[in-house]
Amino acid sequence: MSLTASECAAYLRGQDGFLIVSHRRPDGDTLGSGAALCSALRRAGKTAYCINNREITDNYRPYVEPFLAPEGFEPRCVVTVDVASESLFPEAAPGRVQLALDHHPSNTRFAERICLAAERSSCGELVLEVIKALCGDVSAQEAALLYIAVSTDTGCFQYSNTNAATLRAAAELIELGADNSELNIRFFRTQSRARMALEGMMLSGMRFYRNGKISVVTVTLDMIARAGATENDCEDLAGLAGKAEGSVVSLTIRETKPGESKLSLRSKPGVNVSEMCAAFGGGGHAMAAGCTIAAEPETALELMLRVMDEKWPAD
Description:
CATH architecture of the largest domain: Alpha-Beta Complex
Strand order of the largest sheet: 6-7-8-9-11-10
């Protein structure tokens, strides 16, 4: 069943005992949107928690800590936020989902009800509308959480998914109390030395195919160890390869464990990387998608290049 933002708010108003579920390797959109929705539900008199996703990094934990579920909490209504498929459920996520809020066109419709806004650049924009319909207003804390969601999913408004509606939502959130200066410094202008070292390794090893139209960077477990990097230093690595002049499709391959690689693809308009990732059970947006391949990075690269040749034949 598909719901509008106002219908979603009406449904939430009639439920209680909420657990809000983020996706695996959670980013700012799934965490910020989920925490903001949790806050709004509490203001509406509901019992609500966010799942204690074990993969939350130190960058985001201070913002979501007040909303994490205690051990043993038994939900009556499970809501996913920014989760496109069941394959992205985190550890210990309930199997039955009553409601999904999402902005990925590739959503597999796993939930009993879905509120999908595929035209939105982030799930945070959708949650903003749901909160206004649910509570009639948005708190300053919720505005900050939603600003984290919107800004991180658009690369601080640099990615091609940014549109006029995105900027209007960001302006509204600033007016509602989000400190954009502080948050931008925290998430976009501060890096550890380990992160800088890791980026140096990635960029020095960048490879190109099709006369530079395809740019590829690889992040191996050995590189992470040599840089002294933690999971906190490995967020949002997918945007680096696409900065190369002439690149149309960029591919970031990260070795997550021996024999497994996570691939993140980005593209310029006109090339649908979601179709490429779908070949391996992944998906996302037309110009930003990902998948996981059970192979070491070099084999994963070979497999993806073959799919690229099929889905995006050379001129």
